[in-house]
Design goal:
With about 750 residues, this protein is an alpha+beta fold.
Length: about 750
């Protein structure tokens, strides 16, 4: 219960802080406005002193005012001795003339000319608006006398409109900072005053701030653009997106997503089961080969498939002489995406299978159940959270992918490609692309809710504080050998695709001239800066994404707080959005103060963390569902605070999921394309953009070299992670036969 005394103190502190915040904002804004006004006043006075003596040169002089005082417009008046007044003579454009029309016969204008007559420059009380850099901005009006050479009388006067963009921008920045400071103070004060667990409250608050700024805010910008047409509100983009043409594309995306997710999950489960729950001997080799598809740019496997099985492919055309089979369309896309994305399922399900306590399986076998009955009634049901998580992650990843459909879709239309082409193609319609991208959220959110509903209805706890260190073999020799043959066949096919890339690094021109050459390796020194930038940014993002994901998973699974479902949805949302939309939305959202991040390495790191956060979150949630909360409760009863429990209890128990999360973030950061292509700069370039550039220019040899280098780097980092972050001994098992 909130006590009245605490509430009174909170309200009093809030009133005092808000009053001080408002006073600081008003003072700083007024001071800066006065400074800008005085600076512009002095510049106007200096400018009129450069007026030419010859009246014929006045027009050219007026036209150059914007180069001296940026964005300014001026209107020149000559003094008529007969009328004892000023009349317009030369002007720079219609806009300043319209300003004069609005001021005509006003006391402000008359007083300004009276001051000019007495050789004084004045600032008019009336403000106006002018066009500056393609946008309407506020402008301050000045009237300054053009003094005759005798120095005693005015031969003319100048009406100048000077944009006050700097003052407006500064005022907006101060307002944003003032509001941000007020919100931060209120939130922090509320947590300190009323939260029973302040540390948990600050962790929740921190996550909400992260997803609010880097997920919700860009999405709001995308929504705003989707309802905008030529600067005004319009539903035209939504009507176009809901037309039959794009509904067909949505249906194509759903077919592709379901087929890819199903195939990838089945394949990932079979390989994960062979590695984690059998006495198979080559586990490290299989694990390494199974993660190969995620350590290359997303379009590299499509390129290999086309070169080997396309209309003029090495195998389909030259070896098998197939003329009727086409790799383009739903079948080819499902094949490529399944190969590219099954490592997501493999990594997710591996962590779950590794965590299953084998004592439950032992009990089933002791009660005379067969191996198949134990698998179907114990092992498989306990793996359901990981299987559903894997299916959902692959499904959303398939919907958001545009690189593979761009190369292999054929007659199949999918929304991701349509959105990408609408944003970056001839239409150049960011709002239309945003609308198409939002259509992809509907099936993703549906899959997410179904998966959550299923998991929440059942208990999957198996880690209770004293897990078994042995694992009972559930497969006989024949089943294990058959599974091994299948897995080796799949991995052999994948290896063949990558050997195609490696081979391309040593030939003059794949498909035309297969002569051996080393000339392609000049791509390494030419791309050295890109290699260093990519590796540096990925290394920074990897631990950040892993820690944030595990903290988020612990809060969502173990804690109760207002807005928990909203936080979970926001953290999962980035996986459903096409990377092109996120990239462009980031450019729009973070290309102005107070978060001017475009062009820096920070925006790329943030994109890495936010884009891959859902994978780590899913891994963490799945692992925590298997850990008995009583372990953490016991530590808390002994006086451990939340950070200590997380560091000493939760993180060690979810270490497999933590390692998987970091590994996946690193490889995705190293191979990102869609969003990164809009965020790179001259200083922070990306290796995959370099590879894409070579591929677009048909320099496949150079692209193959960089792909090979990328694979070597990621495999090296994988090995280093396994050495530096050893697996938890609690999850290591010795295989025993029964």
């Amino acid at each position: 219960m909130v006590r009245k005394k605490q509430l009174l103190y909170f309200i009093l502190a809030a009133v005092i802080f808000l009053a001080a915040d408002l006073w600081m904002y008003s003072s700083l804004t007024s001071s800066f406005s006065r400074y800008v006004q005085e600076r512009d006043y002095n510049e106007v006075r200096l400018f009129v002193q450069t007026a030419p003596e010859d009246e014929a040169d006045v027009g050219e002089w007026i036209q150059g005012v914007h180069s001296v005082i940026p964005g300014s417009q001026a209107l020149y008046f000559t003094y008529d001795e007969n009328l004892f007044d000023f009349s317009p003579a030369q002007y720079s454009g219609n806009e300043i003339s319209s300003i004069l029309t609005s001021l005509e016969n006003t006391a402000d204008l008359k007083n300004g000319f009276d001051s000019a007559y007495y050789l004084e420059a004045v600032i008019l009380d009336t403000s106006s608006r002018v066009t500056y850099n393609g946008a309407l901005v506020d402008a301050q009006l000045f009237i300054a006398p053009v003094i005759d050479e005798n120095g005693y009388e005015a031969r003319g006067a100048l009406l100048i409109a000077v944009p006050t963009g700097a003052a407006s921008a500064y005022s907006n920045l101060l307002m944003t900072l003032a509001i941000g400071a007020a919100v931060a103070f209120l939130l922090i004060s509320w947590v300190v005053s009323f939260s029973r667990d302040a540390v948990t409250g600050f962790m929740v608050l921190g996550l909400f701030i992260i997803v609010g700024i880097f997920v919700a805010y860009p999405l709001i910008e995308a929504i705003r653009l989707s309802f905008t047409q030529d600067g005004s509100f319009s539903l035209a983009k939504w009507r176009l997106a809901l037309s039959p043409s794009y509904i067909v594309a949505l249906w194509g995306s759903l077919r592709l997503g379901v087929s890819t997710a199903t195939a990838s999950t089945i394949l990932g489960f079979l390989i994960a089961f062979l590695v984690e729950r059998t006495s198979f001997k080559r586990k490290k080799v299989v694990s390494t080969l199974a993660t190969m598809p995620v350590i290359s740019p997303p379009f590299s496997l499509s390129l290999s498939i086309i070169l080997l099985f396309g209309n003029n492919g090495l195998i389909s055309k030259q070896l098998l002489h197939l003329n009727t089979v086409s790799i383009y369309g739903l079948g080819g896309l499902t094949l490529v995406q399944s190969i590219s994305m099954f490592p997501i399922a493999f990594l997710t399900i591996s962590g779950v299978l590794r965590q299953i306590d084998s004592t439950v399986e032992d009990a089933s076998l002791d009660l005379s159940a067969s191996r198949w009955q134990t698998f179907t009634n114990i092992t498989f049901p306990l793996a359901v959270p990981g299987i559903l998580s894997a299916w959902m992650l692959v499904f959303t990843n398939s919907l958001a992918d545009f690189a593979n459909p761009l190369l292999l879709s054929g007659n199949l239309r999918v929304l991701s490609t349509e959105a990408y082409m609408m944003v970056t193609g001839r239409m150049n319609d960011l709002g239309g692309g945003a609308v198409l991208s939002f259509l992809l959220l509907m099936p993703t959110v549906t899959a997410f809710m179904v998966q959550r509903f299923w998991v929440s209805r059942k208990s999957f706890v198996t880690v209770t504080g004293k897990p078994s260190t042995t694992l009972t073999e559930l497969t006989n020799t024949k089943v294990r050998n058959a599974l091994s043959v299948f897995v080796w066949a799949v991995l052999g096919f994948i290896l063949m695709l990558y050997l195609t890339i490696v081979a391309g690094a040593f030939v003059v021109n794949w498909g035309i001239d297969y002569s051996f050459t080393l000339a392609n390796w000049k791509a390494i020194p030419d791309s050295w800066d890109s290699i260093v930038s990519t590796l540096t940014l990925a290394a920074i993002a990897t631990p950040l994404a892993g820690i944030i994901a595990m903290v988020g998973a612990m809060l969502i699974v173990r804690k109760k707080f207002p807005g928990k479902r909203l936080l979970e949805v926001l953290m999962m949302t980035p996986y459903a959005i096409p990377g092109t939309l996120i990239g462009i939305a980031y450019v729009i959202a973070f290309n102005r103060q107070p978060l001017l991040l475009v062009g820096t390495g920070a925006i790329i790191v943030i994109n890495y963390v936010i884009r891959e956060l859902p994978v780590g979150l899913e891994n963490g949630i799945t692992a925590l569902h298997q850990i008995d909360p009583s372990i953490e409760e016991a530590a808390q009863d002994l006086g451990a605070d939340v950070p200590t429990v997380f560091r000493t209890i939760v993180l060690p128990l979810v270490r497999p999921a933590f390692i998987s999360s970091m590994s996946y973030t690193f490889v995705r950061a190293m191979t990102a394309v869609s969003a990164i292509i809009f965020l790179v700069s001259a200083k922070w370039y990306h290796l995959t953009i370099k590879i894409l550039s070579y591929s677009e220019n048909l320099r496949f040899g150079l692209a193959s070299v960089l792909c090979t280098i990328l694979i070597v780097i990621i495999l090296g980092v994988f090995s280093l992670l396994q050495v530096l972050v050893k697996d938890n001994r609690l999850t290591q098992k010795t295989i025993s036969s029964r």
